[in-house]
Amino acid sequence: MTRSPPRHLAALFLVVLLSACGRLIPETRIPAPPVSTAPPAGLTSALLLGAAAGPSVASLGLAGDDAATALAAFRESCPRVTTRADQSGLTRPEDWKPACAAATTWPTGDAARFFATWLEPVRIGDGKAHATGYYEPEIAGVRTRRPGYDVPVFKLPPDLVRARPEDAPPTERGTQPLGRYDETGTFVPYYDRAAIEGGALAGKGLEIGWAADPVEFFFLQIQGSGRLIGPDGSVMRIGYAGQNGHPYTGIGSVMRARGLIGEGPGQYSGSMQGIMQYIRENPEAGRELMQQNQSWIFFKELTGDGPLGALNVPVRARSSVAADPAYVPLGAPVWLSLDRPEASGLWIAQDTGGAIKGANRFDTFWGAGSAARTTAGGMSGRGEAVLLLPKGTLQRLNAR
């Protein structure tokens, strides 16, 4: 979810989230070296990487149910996609208005024809895609601290700010870095994970909830949103509110570098379950491992019917996907044809994630619960990606 974050931390997802992210997202095993989706040096957007016509929408073979759920998610994105700037450089807000106007009354039973009528297929770069998965975790947690629930869930601290231009240079994305001003008025990095776990934020009234298990909460932070389930069955949905400004370090990559992942004696599976097993069997080393990821996610309570993605609309199971907004207009439909059939089909780009970077890199959302956790946890698919953009987009871009 804005897994990454915004979300999201993405997204963040966990195959790549564990090895490279921050959301979310976007999962249970460290994959073999992936198909490269990183842009060549100097290319930072889809407009620069190149856009070309993809296969016809009719040839994609959109299934009725798949198209219907995608159309519903697309409708939810329309108020945002028609008003916000597109970082990829591919579209303008006004480009989406005809399709969005038509979507409001388009019959759900004929959704496949909607996409063929109003949108055109566009391939970014070579179109070679890599997709992982993310989900909305459910962990034991309560609003008010009680015995057995000692892991704080913090809201966004008021002293977490962006540096004034005169106090720090901008980041590579052109934004001012996150941090805080100390008692001398000097801008410094914000507290990292180890400092926060050590009590740096204690006593400041920032707790909105308390989790029971620090390991489960760590992985919820990677996903960027989740549900706290109380012993009485009460549910508190929390979502990404911000991040402390420190880079995400995937602990799966750390374990691999330390020789802890593999098939030999004393080694662990690179899955989320395997990483959790190592942390639980080695509490001190496991805590040190988690603190290698200095990033910390702050939360807010969500009252809607789903976790919010980077578009500030709910992400939907089997319909929403996290993407890099430098290469995919948020709100755009994305067709994936992967070696994982369950993830192939039509998705709507509604989220981002810290590990979801580069052209044709996606993180599929699978909802909440044990089934979602299993599916997202094992998701690592490769294949082809096609964006569906407003008709006339390629003609306008080629005329530049």
From TrEMBL:
It catalyses: Exolytic cleavage of the (1->4)-beta-glycosidic linkage between N-acetylmuramic acid (MurNAc) and N-acetylglucosamine (GlcNAc) residues in peptidoglycan, from either the reducing or the non-reducing ends of the peptidoglycan chains, with concomitant formation of a 1,6-anhydrobond in the MurNAc residue. The keyword GTP-binding does not apply. GO terms for molecular function: hydrolase activity, hydrolyzing O-glycosyl compounds; peptidoglycan lytic transglycosylase activity. Residues 138-300 form the Lytic transglycosylase MltA domain. GO terms for cellular component: outer membrane. GO terms for biological process: cell wall organization; peptidoglycan catabolic process; peptidoglycan turnover. It is an enzyme of class 4 (lyase). It comes from the Bacteria. The keyword Zinc does not apply. Keywords: Cell wall biogenesis/degradation, Lyase. Its EC number is 4.2.2.n1. This is peptidoglycan lytic exotransglycosylase.
